[in-house]
Specification:
This protein is an all-alpha fold. It is built from 41 helices and no strands. Helix 5 runs parallel beside helix 9, helix 17 packs antiparallel against helix 20 and helix 17 packs parallel to helix 22. It is globular.
């Protein structure tokens, strides 16, 4: 120890003390990194620590940790540990508060000597074994301020699982939950929920507030790690990953574990649909907020709530003739209500997210059955006006430094999460009709009867006791707010996606007419043409929705022509389509399929619309179809295919399948060859298309869901899809329908392997 603590030659006085302190710090950090030599403060003598403490400005932390280490063994005086922790805790809390309230960049560039010293002298390792409330607070504050601590804790799987057992203690629940959430956020490997001791009994012991907070933790354990950027990952990379991971992922296993907990989904549905008036009393809520106040990421939320309450009080006092005391009354009555709303919004956010992930998982049908039985949809319908899509007050609840329209606002986030849930719920599932009420279901039946077509089986089989009640169902309410949405609103994308998911699957004339009668087509065209929407995401969602709304529906094309009634409007519409075919190709596919069907019909009404509709006349020109086909193939390549742009490949295939039906496939291929030569790139398009179709075979032939989607969206059997691709890929250069027949040997480049680069 002399080598560690003794002053070197000429090292007397303050400078020597500082050098000695620096030497100790350097040796400690080296020992912790290498596992050799000096690894914790307890190995240093008390005398040396006292000598160095004042000059090094350690604030007595190493000495306190040494005492803590001595008293943290079995049969030690635990009360002594607690008193030591109470001395340490304020030293760390002040720094953590500064960290989250200062400018973040400045905070990151500054140093936090107390938390750094605490970690360096082994504080994190000492208290990890006997966690109590003060320990949790210290660990949390150290994780916030000192880089690497959270990751080190995350590597200790036994410690992470142990933390879950502490959640049974109501006094430390919030602190434990917050610490677990932070640790899981940096953990390299997702934990297995089934490894948590007595998970089912733990969850059943939670009250509703605790369950909602527990959902924050569950979100990390049931979501695939790359979900957020799913469209950006190439299909080549995804396919390669799927070959490596033959079994279910950890997230999927965790989803199954949750669904096996008795009553779990039912409790989530009750939480998601309960009204603010049904929540716990104000006193319990305020007590919980007081607990949270010490947890720094919620301090700003409380500040925001206080500001709202004061504004409400001032507004009430100004509006009243009796200003003497009404403000105080308002503060007493309004503050708890504002807090309760915020409270409930935050809870519902977490719960809806978990339900949404479960709806998209492997057990989708099981989850669908349960949330239908527990009346999630009617419950959300009853909350729509008063909570989910409530009107913003003059002082909407937002976090410090944000505004009402910021995506971080709880109000905004709740709306988006609600729309994502509707999208997942409706997508390719017959339970989508639960979004309507009984009168609206009767309207669907009447539409089918008037059109002399059979009712959709799913409409007939819908359990009327599980549908929405009230004057309007959830889908109709959504349409109403959608049409009122400002042009720059961030909700437009999610609203369009949610409504489009209701139409996905086998095309239903009655579903389309239900929405057409409510002015949806005119609203979409107004957004695309009159407001000349510039957002690519919103435009794509509108084009996709328009495609589903108009497909095979002659009435929709008639309405389209009535709205787009000038050449100027039609040109703006075409410009929007042509500005990005990746975004508009699903609409191009819809028009192509619809035109093909209409041309085969002998109905007078259809013939009239065919002759008058600008859109159908435009697509009926061979040159236009060939132009779309050429560009669709040209904008995608195997190495850049994603879930977002693979639809361009399928749209090009639809155009060629319809040509094959009319024995025009050779003509289309020959025209592509001529276009290549015109562009001075012989072989470029057809070689690329050949590679794309080879990938198509690899990607789709083992995916039942994808093939079903292709059939439903095109009304072309998957067998015909497969046959067409095989014919196009035939190696026989004498075949008039084989791509190779149209590539000169000098430009042939079809055997290249495509691998993820």
């Amino acid at each position: 120890m002399a080598a560690v603590g003794g002053p070197g030659p000429g090292g007397g006085g303050r400078r020597g003390a500082r050098r000695g302190a620096a030497n100790i710090l350097a040796q400690l950090r080296h020992g912790q990194l290498s596992g050799r030599g000096l690894t914790r403060g307890a190995q240093i003598t008390e005398a040396l620590l006292k000598e160095r403490d004042k000059q090094a400005k350690w604030n007595g932390i190493p000495l306190l940790l040494q005492k803590l280490y001595e008293n943290s063994h079995p049969n030690s005086d635990f009360s002594q540990c607690q008193s030591i922790l109470k001395e340490i805790s304020p030293l760390l809390s002040m720094e953590a508060m500064a960290f989250v309230t200062e400018d973040r960049k400045a905070a990151q560039e500054s140093t936090f000597p107390n938390t750094y010293t605490f970690d360096l002298f082994g504080g994190v390792d000492v208290i990890s074994d006997d966690l109590i409330k003060d320990c949790l607070s210290i660990l949390y504050n150290t994780c916030i301020c000192t880089e690497g601590v959270t990751k080190r804790l995350a590597e200790r799987n036994d410690f992470v699982l142990f933390l879950f057992t502490l959640m049974t203690n109501k006094k430390t629940f919030l602190q434990t939950a917050t610490l677990i959430e932070d640790i899981l956020g940096v953990k390299k490997e997702m934990i297995q929920l089934e490894d948590i001791p007595n998970l089912a009994s733990l969850v059943s012991s939670f009250d509703q507030q605790q369950l909602a907070n527990f959902c924050r933790i569950l979100a990390v354990t049931i979501s695939e790690l790359d979900t957020g950027s799913d469209d950006k990952h190439t299909l080549l990379a995804k396919n390669a990953q799927q070959k490596k991971n033959l079994g279910p992922s950890r997230a999927e296993v965790n989803q199954a574990t949750l669904l096996n907990i008795p009553g779990f989904v039912e409790r989530l549905c009750k939480l998601a649909t309960r009204k603010v008036s049904e929540t716990t009393g104000t006193s319990n809520f305020l007590q919980e907020l007081e607990e949270w106040y010490t947890w720094l990421d919620n301090a700003l939320v409380l500040d925001a709530l206080m500001r709202v309450a004061n504004e409400e009080a001032e507004q009430s006092s100004t509006e009243s003739s009796d200003e003497s005391g009404l403000a105080n009354t308002s503060t007493r009555t309004q503050l708890p209500h504002s807090m309760k709303i915020m409270h409930e919004i935050m809870y519902k956010l977490e719960v809806l997210y978990v339900l949404c992930v479960l709806l998209m998982g492997r057990q989708r049908n099981q989850v669908h059955k349960m949330i239908a039985e527990f009346k999630l949809i009617p419950g959300l319908n009853n909350l729509f006006d008063k909570l989910i899509w409530r009107k913003h007050s003059a002082s909407a609840l937002v976090l410090h430094g944000h505004n009402q329209n910021c995506d971080c606002s709880p109000d905004i986030t709740l709306k988006i999460q609600f729309l994502r849930l509707l999208q997942s719920f409706s997508d390719h599932h017959e339970n989508k009709y639960l979004l309507l009420n009984s009168q609206e279901l009767n309207e669907l039946s009447a539409i089918s009867l008037k059109a002399n077509i059979p009712e959709v089986d799913a409409v007939v089989n819908t359990d009327r006791s599980l549908v929405c009640d009230g004057k309007r169902g959830l889908l109709t309410r959504l349409l109403q707010v959608m049409k009122k949405e400002p042009a720059e609103s961030s909700f437009r994308f999610w609203q369009a996606r949610a409504v489009e998911s209701f139409l996905r699957g086998a095309t239903s004339y009655a579903d389309q007419m239900f929405l057409l009668k409510r002015g949806l087509l005119e609203h979409i065209l107004y957004c695309i043409v009159d407001s000349e929407c510039k957002s690519r995401d919103v435009l794509q969602s509108y084009f996709d929705l328009l495609g589903e709304l108009m497909k095979f529906n002659i009435d929709a094309f008639k309405r389209f022509n009535k709205y787009i009634n000038t050449d100027e409007k039609f040109q703006i519409f075409l410009n929007q389509i042509n500005s990005s075919l990746v975004d508009s190709n699903m609409l191009v596919r819809c028009i192509t399929l619809s035109l093909d069907r209409f041309e085969s019909q002998s109905d007078i009404k259809v013939a009239e619309v065919l002759s008058e509709c600008r859109l159908l006349s435009y697509m009926s020109q061979m040159s236009m179809r060939m132009s779309f086909l050429f560009r669709l193939i040209n904008i995608i390549h195997v190495q850049t295919l994603t879930q977002e742009n693979v639809s361009c490949l399928n749209t090009s295939l639809v155009i060629l399948m319809l040509a094959r039906r009319k024995d025009k496939l050779p003509f289309y291929l020959h025209t592509l060859q001529e276009m290549e030569y015109t562009e001075k790139y012989p072989g470029f398009i057809l070689n690329n298309f050949h590679s794309l179709l080879r990938f198509w075979q690899q990607h789709y032939l083992n995916k039942d869901k994808d093939s079903t989607c292709l059939e439903n969206s095109s009304c072309i059997s998957f067998t015909y899809w497969k046959e067409t691709v095989s014919i196009l890929l035939s190696p026989d250069r004498t075949s008039p329908c084989a791509i190779v027949s149209y590539i000169d040997e000098a430009y042939m480049d079809i055997d290249r392997d495509f691998t993820e680069e």
